[in-house]
Amino acid sequence: MRATGHLRPATTARLARKLALAGTGAAILALPLVGATGASAATPAAAPAATTAASAYTNDLDGWIRQSLDIMAQQGIPGTYDGIHRNVIRESSGNPYAINNWDSNAAAGTPSKGLLQVIDPTFQAYHVPGTSWDPYDPVANITAACNYAAHRYGSIDNVFGPY
User: Fold this and answer.
1) How far apart, in whole angstroms, are the C-alpha atoms of residue 99 and residue 114?
2) For 113-120, what is the mean pLDDT?
3) In CA terms, which of 35, 104, 136, 138 is 20 to 30 Å from 61?
4) 71-76: long-range pairs with CB below 8 Å, 24+
5) pTM as predicted
């Protein structure tokens, strides 16, 4: 770099080639760093890293279980991937919008909802801070149900039938 802070043409071309090879996502992350000369320029670069970490979970059953397990670990709620997965498949076949409109809970006006078929009063009583208050939210549903199962059965791993 010259003292004026401008990139030499060869350096600019090399950077452009590297960004093109790395793909659009990397280019967008690298753009705030081009021409950065002070410590304050590092602040915008930190924000995408936090966003990337938060979005590291896939938006599918695997990602929802993994995100729930991380929250559960922070809150001291026991459970394993296999225990959660087994119960989700039995209760909802992995459909976060599943609703049971035929059992005794539904007849009483409180149908079971979501991946682990939790009724609203149970969801509210065992809601875990940091998750959504929407019982259809996959992570909130899994985490609340596992919290309930931990209090009632010791862990979701100990649940082998409807609970």
Assistant:
1) 6
2) 98
3) 104
4) 71/128, 71/130, 71/131, 71/139, 71/143, 72/128, 72/143, 72/146, 72/147, 74/130, 75/128, 75/129, 75/143, 75/147
5) 0.67
Q: What is the DSSP letter of 118?
A: B
DSSP 129: T
Q: In the predicted model, is pLDDT for residue 128 greater than 70?
A: yes
Mean pLDDT of 141-154: 98
Instruction: Answer for the pair 45, 51: CB distance below 8 angstroms, yes or no.
Output: no
Lowest mean pLDDT among 18-32, 85-99, 149-163: 18-32
In angstroms, the CA 6 to CA 13 distance is 13
The pLDDT, as a whole number, for residue 81 is 98
Nearest CA among 141, 111, 110, 113 for reference residue 128: 141
